[in-house]
Automatic annotation (TrEMBL):
Residues 23-32 have a biased composition (Basic and acidic residues). This is TetR/AcrR family transcriptional regulator. Residues 52-71 bind DNA. It comes from the Bacteria. Keywords: DNA-binding. It comes from Brachybacterium halotolerans. Pfam families: TetR_N.
Amino acid sequence: MEAGHPEVADPVPDLLGNVPAGDETRRKENTRSRLVRASVQVFAEKGLDGATIDDLVRAAGFTRGAFYSNFSSKDEVFRAAFALATQQVIQIMHERVDEARAAHGPLGSVAPGGSAGGVADEGARTEEAALMLDLFEAMRPFGRQWCLLHTEAVTHSLRSQADRDELVSQRRLLRSTVAGVLASTAPGVGPREGLDFEDLAQLLIGVFIDLITREQLEGEDVSALASTTILGTLRAFLQPGEEAVAGAVCAGAADRGECRTAD
């Protein structure tokens, strides 16, 4: 790798390193849990097509018999593995956001005119950039693993309805989680007209995936770019005031017929 470029961890950092292994007294559930946990790393390194059942059971320390008593195919294991990885990403996100809030406070001037007196405060902007960098750095060690799994999931879901339904479910879960984090981290602001927090969340998830992909493919340290890009995206699509928040709620509920205007 060229000098000055960040080293890519090998093997991929374990996204599930701190996930409890499960209830040891419930043998079947524990066997299934260990197979799924071990498969995350295998699928990240070899892909769904490249990984074999022998690879999966070897990583978990079981035999093929244990596999077939819990799963009918690799695809079934992969769907469970991606769901587990997504749940862990969400857990890490909540933990780091809580830490970032404690260190930096809410994003008081994330939208133009959102700081005190309607004038953007340079100190607040610096704090917000630092918060964004903290969040990106916290997710980065696991970003490559999750992005590899997500890429596999997208590729296979385009050809399989069963895989597609599961991926849609996990994407919606992640999107709604990020939207909730945005709404609570930047109080008093909301997406611009026609957008809701889930739209903005999907945009930020796409930015994150592209940054991690760029770093891994091009060997470029994207730390500074991550901070400015994520914060710049928020500033471009958020605006201050209660009307913005109300508009975001209505945009998200319009299709369900739940949006009501005040008389």
